[in-house]
Amino acid sequence: MQNNNKYIAREGWLSIIGNIFLFGLKYWAGVVTGSLALIADAWHTLTDSVSSIIVLIGGKISNKPADKEHPFGHGRAEHIAAIIIGVLLAIVAFDFVLSAFEKFGTKEKTVFGTVAWVVTILSVLVKEGMAQYAFWAAKKANSAILKADGWHHRTDALSSVVILIGIAVGKYFWWTDAVLGFIVAIMIGWASFEILSKEIKSLLGESPSDELLLSIRETAQRACKEPLHIHHIHLHKYGNHTELSFHIKLPPQMTIEVAHNICTTVENAIKTELGFEATVHPEPIHW
Where would you tag: which of 2, 155, 201, 230 has the fewest CB atoms within 10 A of its CB? Predict the structure, then answer.
C-alpha cells in the first residue's frame, strides 16, 4: 500500500510540474500565432495539472486504512477522483467545440511559424513520455487513477500531433485552425467518455467475468476434497481491495466445527491465490 502511494505521488508531482511548463509554452505560442488550436491545447494541458492534483488527493485518500465508517477501506476514492478528471475533460471539450464554431464564423486565417513547430514537437515528446510513465506506474500500483491520468497525457500528445499536421497544411486553407480546434475537442471528449464509462461502471458494480468465476470455483474446490457446489457468488471491489462472498453446500450430518474448518480453508485459499477477502456461507445439501 505504501509503494502504491509512492508511485501515485511521484506521477502526480511530475505531471504538475511538466504540465505547468508546457501550458506556458503552448499558450505563449498560441497568442503569438493567434491559433485557437494551440490555445485549446494549452488549456487541455493545464487541466492535466488540475487532474494531477486530484490524483494526489485521491491517491492519499484511497490508501487510508479501513475504519469504523469505512470498514472496507477507502479504495473507491480512486474511482471518484478519476470521474472528476473525466468531467473536467468533458467541460474543456465542450468549451472548445464552441470556440471552433465561432472561429469558423470569423473566417480568420492563422499563420503558423517556427515557434508553433518547435513548441508542438516538444509537447508531443514530453506528453508521450509522461503518458508512458503514468501507464508504467499504474501497472506497478494497480491504480485506476494513474491509468486515467495516463490517458489524459496521451490525448494531449495526440492532440499535439493533430496540430502538427495542421501546421503543415495551414498555409493553404483559412479554416485549418478552426477544424483543428474542433478535432482536438472531439479527442478530449472521447477521452472523457472512456474514463467516465469505465469508472461509473466500477462504482455502480459489475458482475465478474466468466473467467474469474471459473477461477474462484477452481481455487475453492482445490482447497477441499469435499464437493462444494459453489453458488451465490458476489464480488465487491473497493479500489485494490476486493470482498468476495459465496455459498457452499455440505452434507447435513457434518458437524459445525468441520464445516467451519472447510470454510476457513477455502477462505484462506482464495486470499492466497486470488487476493480476495472471502466470506463463505455453508448450507446443508439436500439430494
Answer: 2
CB contact set of 286 (below 8 Å; sequence gap of 6+): 252
C-alpha span between 184 and 240 (Å, rounded): 33
Same-domain status, 233 and 190: no
Place of cell 508531443: 124
- Tally of structural domains, the chain: 2
- What Rg, from alpha-carbon coordinates, does the chain have? 25
Range of the domain at 60: 2-204
**pTM of the full structure:** 0.54
In 9-127, DSSP assigns E strands to none
Q: Are residues 29 and 116 in the same domain?
A: yes
Q: Measured on CA atoms in the order 27, 33, 39, 40, is the torsion positive or negative?
A: negative
Domain match, 50 and 151 both = yes
Last residue within a domain, chosen from 204, 221, 238: 204
- Measured N-to-C along each axis, helices 36-62 and 2-33 cross at an angle, to the nearest 10 degrees, of 170
140 shares a domain with 256: no
Q: Which residues pair with 248 in a beta bridge?
A: 282
Asked whether 240 and 75 are in contact (CB, 8 A), the reply is yes
Structural contact between residues 29 and 119, judged by C-beta atoms closer than 8 angstroms: yes
What is the residue-level pLDDT of the chain in tens, covering all 287 positions? 455 667 777 887 888 888 888 889 888 888 887 777 777 778 777 777 766 776 666 666 666 665 666 555 555 666 777 787 788 778 878 877 887 777 676 665 656 678 888 888 898 899 899 889 989 988 888 777 788 778 878 877 877 787 777 777 766 666 776 777 787 788 778 878 887 887 777 666 556 678 888 888 888 898 888 888 888 888 777 655 677 888 999 988 889 999 999 999 999 999 888 888 888 999 898 76
Dihedral angle of Cα 218, 221, 225, 228, to the nearest 10 degrees:
-140
